[in-house]
Amino acid sequence: MHYWRSFDELEQAPEFREAVKREFPNDEWDRLPPATRRQFLKVMGASVAMAGFTGCRWPKEEIVPFAHRPAGRTPGVAEQYATSLELGGAALGLLVTSMDGRPIKNEGNPLHPDSLGALPAVAQSDILGLYDPDRSVQPLLRQSGQDFVKTWDDFASWAEGRITDSGAGVAVLVEPSSSPTVERLRRRFSDVFPSAEVVEYAPISRDAERRGTAIAYGRPLRPHPHLDRARVIACFDADPFFDHPASIPLSRQFAEARKPSPDGISRLWVAEPSFTITGGRADHRRATPASQIPRVLAGLARELVATHHLELPEEAVNLESAFGATIFDDDFIPDLAADLMEHRAASVILVGPAQAPEVHALAAVLNQGLGAVGETLSYTDAPDPGRPDHVEALAGLTARMVAGAVETIVILGGNPVYDAPVDLGFADALSAVPNSVHLSHFNDETSRVCSWHLPRAHALEAWGDGRSWNGTITLRQPLIEPLYGGRSSAEVLAMLLGESPPSGHDLVRETMDGYLDAADFEASWKRALHDGVIADTAAPAVEVALDGSLLAGAVASLTEMIDAPAPTVQGPELVLRPDRKVYDGRWTNNAWQQELPDAITKTTWDNVVEVAPPTARELGLKEGDVVEITSSGATLELPVCIVPGQAAATFTTTLGYGRTAAGSVGDGVGADTYRLRSSASPWGAAEVGVSRTGKSVALAITQDHFAIDPKGFGARNSRIGILIREASLDHFLADPEVFHHMDHHPPLISLWKDQKYPGEQWGMAIDLNACNGCNACVVACQAENNVPVVGREQVINQREMHWLRVDRYFKTEPGVGPYEVDDAEMVFQPMTCVQCENAPCEQVCPVAATQHTEDGINAMVYNRCIGTRYCSNNCPFKVRRFNFFNYHKDLTDTEQLQFNPEVTVRSRGVMEKCTYCVQRIQKVRIAARNDNRPVTDGEIVPACAQTCPTNAIAFGDLNDPTSEVSRLREDKRAYATLAELNIRPRTQYLARLSNKVGGSEPAHHAPAHHDDADSHGKEG
Amino acid sequence: MSASDPMARNYLDNTSDDPTRRAPLVVGDNDFASVTETVCRVVEMPKTPPAWWIGFFVSVSLAGVLFAMITYLVTTGVGVWGLQTPVAWGWAIVNFVFWVGIGHAGTLISAILFLLRQKWRTSINRFAEGMTIFAVVCAGVFPGIHIGRVWVAYWLAPLPNQMAMWPNFRSPLLWDVFAVSTYATVSLLFWYMGMIPDLATIRDRAKSKLRFYIYGILSLGWRSSNRHWHRFEMAYLLLAALATPLVLSVHSVVSFDFAVSLIPGWHTTIFPPYFVAGAIFSGFAMVVTLAIPTRYFLHLEEVITLRHLESMAKVMLATGMMVGLAYSTEFFIAWYSGNAYEGFAFLNRAFGPYAWAYWIMVSCNVIVPQLFWFKRFRTNLVVLWIASVLINVGMWFERFVIVVTSLSRDFLPSSWGYYSPSIVDVMTFVGSFGLFMTLFLLFVRFLPIVGMAEVKGVMPQAHLKDVAAQGHGDYHGDILTERGR
Amino acid sequence: MSTETTTLTDSPAESALFGLVADFDKIDEFLDAVRKVREAGFTEWDTHTPFVIHGLDAAMGIKPTKLPFLVFGAGLTGCAAGIGLQWFTNAFDYPFLISGKPLFSLPANIPVAFEMTILFSAIAALVGMLAFNGLPRLSHPLHGSRLMKRATDDRFLISIEASDPNFDHIETRELLQSLGPLNVEAVEA
Question: Taking the model in full, what pTM does it have?
Fold first, then answer.
């Protein structure tokens, strides 16, 4: 994706040529002399022609059932196909919208257990990777530092010569995969080449969980919490709403359990080093250094056993010797313990993947003791129980490579040179291996060390399959022929087994033989492809019994962890986490993800180190100051971002940045924190060195920096309670009007007679009690509405273009200065155009470029706009976005294939904003009119609502009293933001409910007594 | 009065306030011919002085910078400025309001002082009117170029177009279009009309054919016929009567751009009077800034006298206090309204990230003019000049404070921002001064910068011995008129 | 210079004569002269002064001009045009819903209507003045006059046109001579 980093890049010709060159698969281009104008034109022409091509390619295998439409394809009418995407060892079900053979949008597959119709941001952005002009376009052979363009057949014959008889000296390094086909091929490979080894590695995995359950139960298990059944949830450094393969079902279950009801809602307790979106939803949260989590959990265990006389299963009694004293001087642990005891069998304790196996084991024991298992928690067998941990496995492989035992290594996916633990020295080991092959989307860090680079097929280009987190078989079908002739890892595995050219289609069908009804295979196969999943293939829950001997063995190391000293400013702690945007670095070249504001820090185009305000003050750090972090021998410079709710003396940063061979977008963005990552402690380190460099950088932050002048700080805090209304459930049940008493203003009267709004009147309701700030809606909007990416510098200039943003506020104690805040609550508010009935933006536009439609949408007429920007000034929500430059000018032809043809691509000098996805409204309207029926409620779904994991967004007709949105707006929790301006927003918010122990007055509640003539937040 | 006058520090000082005597508005031993000579000398200089050439060269090159910046802007996008969300209006609008404000002094001096029979206006009004036109030209540049798609700016005019759409007359911006263009037109008419007799003078003194024809055409064949003078006066009176409410309306409408919006700090009813006072304030400051060097270089001390400058200092003192009052009223209302957003908007101005700008504004606009309580400073050209320059600076910052601080922090803290200009912003503003000075220098070189006909009218020689026979005299403001009686 | 020389040098045929011009440099003398000329019953005569002289209109007996009525009419037209334009464009020809406001409301129309009023009347004032004065007129016999050159500087002139019924080259010249001018000049048509 190309975007403007600076004005010098306005003249793009060289980059453009470069991009086209990469896109045009013909080795002649690799030897292009400095291009002349003639060649430039030639290339342009060629690439345009090529674009035409790719546009009208259909999958050759003509067995693509329609997910939504009956057979019979109409050009210009979008269709959706069910397929899937592998992420973190589990498959996510997709419904991909395809326009004339061009996949343009990823949405969730409602039938899939892990997506339920929704998708996390990363999975939606993945479609941009399909059209990435930086993708590698042909197999390359590197010899004596020179690249030679080869064909797949060249590779096939080469491989034949290398991987022979028993496969001695051959190693295959694969990414973890849930694909039955890959599994089958791996088995076959091991059968054919017994002495070849197959190693699995990923920098980010849930191995600790595996090992933990193995310690507790004697075999690796996969825990499945059921948050809808839990009344008490305790998360220890766990982020089930985001950093979990099943984050969507978990988020939705939690949202369900938080729906206000007389018999209470669930309560969430969180102890974590730095804010996660889960922490943001917590009723009680303690910022706890990662190293202290074991102590907290042990403290809890002790409290449960000592105070509440919880009977631990006798296999676990010897653990009790390890239970230390609690570290908090307040009631966090006692209250939590009491709460857990009160809700035995209705509570669950979750521990994050970054915690040691022993901690998971302890949690498992407690869950067992609290009777969670079978109620709020169930286990299934972990796949491939025999496999070693990833880090272990890679260490072993590297050792053998160094020893020269490996002649030929085939790396299928992944990027170990970049993301292997530093102390392994994998890169050097690899370059020592005579024959190395790397299959990858990009010619990346690892490819550059390997002798062979093979272009990998994008998920939407290849056949495949996978299993959801709960084991449900999920199919993957291509929506487009490989743009650059890439192949999937399954296909390459098949090639190593002598199949050439391999047919992914056949491979998958063969695998599916085992799972589909053999009697009528074709029919069930089509059914499976149509649904994207094979019903009832989820793994069964298993009976579990604790294993006393293993647990006893864990006591020693557990005790050690529990006694770990707390970090101090002199000896601070480093915490490494997967990035919420680029994950482990695989989306570093994805411009949507790069520009997506991080859920917590709101930073873009960078990885920062999160620091608690008091720690920052102690070290004299300001936001944007660059610190030097020294750990496991490496030092790294990172900018500071001050975040309340961060554990003291704890420096949290994320992985996946600082890439050197990611592509034009990702290269050199952020710092490579993998260099601080050792195989011994992959998730952080104690006693790291942190020193100021004196340097300071501007962070590309889309929302106000936390630490500002006292005046602004005070004003902001005083407004949060009114913008994002929150009360305890008890308080709300006692006084349902509580949310409407939170702001007071004179009665709202107009100077003129109010307009009548007959017919369909669109409106929206956003439930802040469900929203957890995961950012999925932001990307959905970007993909649906062709929202441009503006790049780092423009974000620093506060010119980001997102129509929909998620406002994040920290609630701090009144009267506490910015740098005194040691703990805070966090609230989210998705903010986009609220379609005011008395829209302030409309009356100030001199050319009437924004005006009201008869169905109540505040329409933006792009081709009428002359760009006075007055509307933006007069918008109290500042949700209008202005095209300061022509941000689309430099997109390559391939990138343009992703555009949604139903939405205008805005030119320079034009204002743009959310229109409730008016194109979707019209589409449904026309369809309804054609079969002459009224539009039914819920038929029109804006992109943001469609992808919301927690169903927080409802859209519909306000004039239809039975519609969901009307119902919600009648809810006592519904209120209009800034109602006192008499702008009458069409989007209303539903207030947040907290469920603290013993309830509590809502924060920032205005004094109850007030003039009865006053009106309240309900207006609008 | 003459040099022998005992109470004059020197013959140029006509600032004494002796109620028994009509203070002379022209000093020195001037008769009609010498006034003509003094003023026309400038226009008829055989060869242009090097000082003029230097000034002209500098101004023109700065104007060149302006046009270079505009070209860059139009070809690249408004993004070359420091604008962003939330601050979508920046220096361009600040400069617009700044220049329009300055553009008020001329018409004000001409029209309002005329209606108020302030005879002292005659020596400076031509000059001030000229300045008005040039300031309005500079002002006109900015709204034109600040829009995102300059090439469709004509959609602002109610012209039939391919979309069959009309502009939206509910928008203050459109009111602005009408107000400013009307103001520019009327000021131009007013200025030109007043100049006709003097152009005729130059025509009649013309030595070369070329001059004769050029000024002949410009003066429309004026024959100084009294039958013409009669209608001329009436027309002038009418224009003055029309221009006066116009001056007040124009800046009021400009202030509507802000007052009609709902942004805290903009949404206030005090803006129209406050803006008008500010405009007059800055306008007079600019007149003084230009008059002092001009009268020195062009030896006009006897016509643009100390008394004129002193009177302007008094006006600045008065308007400066009005502006000061407005500042404090704003704060009071912000507090009194009990509206939290309003209250914060003003606290933020004075103590927020832009406090520096706010305090520059206050010290230049409220504190500096207090000097003018003292005659010593009013009549000290150096002090007067420096003060007037500071006032111009302060008035620019007033607009900056209003436009930028209000926008930078409005309702939702999530969208608060901090705006800082780009180099292009700065160069564009500097360039606009180049344009202004270029036009001004051309004016002083080729047009009569003092209304000779008017000045002669207020000279002692022009007064009759027999007062009973006095007729009307609106044109230079004699109170006793036929219709006046 | 003596008046004789000036007067005798040129004695053109009546036909070719535009009229006679006399110049003064003292306002009071000039005003007396003006009154005398008026008493002599001339109609086609005029005075030329570098600036407005108090009482001159009275002395010449000039009636107030009609200009104000013209300007008033123009003003009304402008106001009507302003309001009409806004009604036609926003409420009649292409109505659109803006901020839930009425399509046509006077308060929002006042500024534009006001500006239009001023614009129309201002233009009427200047154009009307020029039209009534018969300007621009670039060639006029008086421009040929030598004395006229100083009418824009420091001299006060009386001109009597030959077209006046009471005009007689000799008598009129003598009348002017008797008023004590600096010069008397015959101006050719």
Answer: 0.88
